Please model this.
Amino acid sequence: MRMRWCCPAFGALAIFAGAAIAGAVVPIAITDLVFSPAEITVKVGDTVEWTNNDFVDHTATATDGEWDVAIPSGKSAMQQMAKAGTITYFCRVHPGMTGKIHVVSG
Ligand SMILES: [Cu+2]
Model:
């Protein structure tokens, strides 16, 4: 009897925790071959969304190889930041385009 009381409450808590883990969406604009802002700080679980305002395709490619995001001209693309640390990234088409993301826990 007590178990039947307990379980629905636990289920609700699990759903709440899942919503918290989803995190925020943090925007970065790409204009004239520049990531803007070039350096940001997000939390673990947040998602970075790059929007390409240029007439050429770009990528956001982590220098450690953890992710490689294609961002076609006029489109947006997202990548969730899964673990804490500082990630530097660049565009494979234009290696002079660079950015940095500080991912902090909690
Ligand atoms: Cu580029």
Summary: Strands lie at 25-30, 35-36, 39-43, 47-52, 58-62, 68-71, 76-80, 85-90, 98-104.
